[in-house]
Amino acid sequence: MRLRFWGTRGSIAKPGPATVRFGGNTSCVEVRSAAGTLLVLDCGTGAHGLGHALVANRTRPYRGHILITHTHWDHIQGFPFFAPLFLPGDEWDVYAPRGLRESLRDTLAGQMQYTYFPVSLEQFAATVRYHDLVEGVFSIGDVQVSARYLNHPALTLGYRLEVDGVSVVYATDHEPHSRALADGRGDLTGEDRRHAEFLTGADLVIHDAQYTAAEYPTKVGWGHSTVESVVRVSRAAGARRLALYHHDPMRDDDALGYVVEAAQAQAGPALDVFAAAEGMTVDVTPSAVPRAPAAKAPITARTSVPEEMLDQTVLLALDQPDLRERLMEAVMADGLKLATAPDTDAVLRPSPTGTLSLLMLGSRLGGRDGLEVARAVRDGGECGDKDMPIVLVAADEAEADRAAGAAAGVTDWLVAPFSMLYARTRVRAWALRQACRWIAAAAPPDEVERLRALHERGILDTPPEERFDRITRLARRLLDVPTAMVTLVDAERQWFKSRSGFDVTETARDLAFCSYTIQQDEIFVVPDALADPRFADNPVVAEGPRLRFYAGRPVHVAGRRVGTLCVADNRPRQLAEDDKRALDDLAALVEKELA
Ligand SMILES: [Zn+2]
Ligand SMILES: [Zn+2]
User: What distance in angstroms lies between residue 25's CA and the mean position of ligand 1's atoms?
Assistant: First the structure.
């Protein structure tokens, strides 16, 4: 993988004699895989130079992908000046974190309104597609991209790129969650530890390192890392190289040189630290020493979140009136629903508004300790499920006992002082994480009888049989799909009596598309799983076999829907009338065999 820095400065472009060495343009990095996939990381003012270089050197038509971390100016100001967007025949895909109420396209169009810019977004001659991202894993060409929320006063994603046997993490702008880490000391816990996991074994980490620990006390809550914290996290993650990035506009070349020397001294020999410099090219090659494998992302998917899934309730439960008021404002700013709990009982009682997506708990509530309340919620409170994030709100850093919090099941901390804007970003990140889970099908009303019919047939866990396999082979051929299966939906799992083009013998019932199919008599069709909120984040869609299309016809035993004959594809598609009839006929053959 080869990459080139076109902009390295943070916050505002800073050209001039004092920034010649490390550069004055804002964030922009060009990345190319060996196979030629072109990625552009952020579109700060550095994108102007990159755009012209692409136009001058082009093999037409161009196909590229722009990954934007967030839409603060220093990361998008070069977008309207990116020359390839004005060339007909080119194709660009633009990715950025999804806001709660406006799309990426609207946000980018905003900075191109006629008051600010003479050309509008509609005037791009290239084909430009916009993708609103949430946290997850997806592919761009041969590059696997993992996106993870960073800690910044705007919804921000860091990107981990894996291709050609190497991994590069691009993490800007991000502030350490704990004060101790910002100072470059203390253990990595909670979200700080998860951030380090995101960097695990990276061959190159490009990380915002805007401030030094000495400067940090006046920059708390600004959403940026200290050099000391970045070195510490990169070392803990076992990264090989670290490019300090998003340089403070107040730091001239000489000062930055000293900062790098100090960082190298802190890093020691295991981690190669340098400052990203405009015009610098870096070839990232696989390490001779085998690296620790990257941590697996817990939730995965690229998906647009439908509006109705954002109707989520945040429960605020804390004594401190000043913090409570700021948090109420932060929750309601994006139209999330708000519930408040004056005491512990109200937190532990089932919520009248349905499922909660987030609990924000004070370090004191009704005279009780917040950690104690968190523990009680995890141990059997009914207001949310076990995966509901609990964010503990602490009045100061001394109150934020992160080790005790982790033991009590606390997901994250919000430590005062914080601005309303900052709290709003944290709330948004957690709400979006919650919105992006797949929905498991409910059990059909005749579940007991259905399972009895299935178990009485005695077919579960029997060896493959040609009389079923020939049907799935035919289904594959007739419907022109890579996968066809005869599935039986058991109490907790779906088991495959026959499978053609699929090499798993069973999956959890919660993951099964067929759990939906057995709720109806007609054929159940999902034309594009990624566009369907019931499946977009399902691990078989977001990772693993990456299914996009599914069609299943229930099969009956003794009049009960015990399973399905289903087909699946990795491409979205429709089920034509002929295909439906074929699936019907084949399912009838399955039923005959089962009988
Ligand atoms: Zn920035
Ligand atoms: Zn920013």
Answer: 12
Closest ligand to Cα 74: 1
For ligand 2, the distance from its centroid to the CA atom of residue 195, given in whole angstroms, is: 17
pLDDT tens-digit series, residues 294-305? 444 333 333 344
pLDDT value, residue 299: 33
Half-sphere exposure of 191 (CA within 13 A, CB side): 24
| Relative orientation angle of helices 227-236 and 253-267, to the nearest 10 degrees | 30
Q: Is the Cα dihedral 289, 290, 296, 302 positive or negative?
A: positive
Residues of the chain with pLDDT under 70: 60, 99-102, 289-311, 349-355, 381-387, 432-440, 533, 542-544
How far is it, in rounded angstroms, from Cα 592 to Cα 595? 5
Rounded to whole angstroms, the Cα distance separating 27 from 581 reads: 55
Q: How far apart are CA 92 and CA 127, in angstroms?
A: 6
Cα 245 to ligand 2 centre (Å): 13
Ligand nearest the Cα atom of residue 222? 2
pLDDT (0 to 100) of residue 410: 87
DSSP helix/strand/coil, 52: helix
Quick one: which ligand is closest to 156's CA?
2
Report yes or no: 378 and 409 within 8 Å, Cβ to Cβ.
yes
Residues with Cβ within 5 Å of ion ligand 2?
Answer: 72, 173
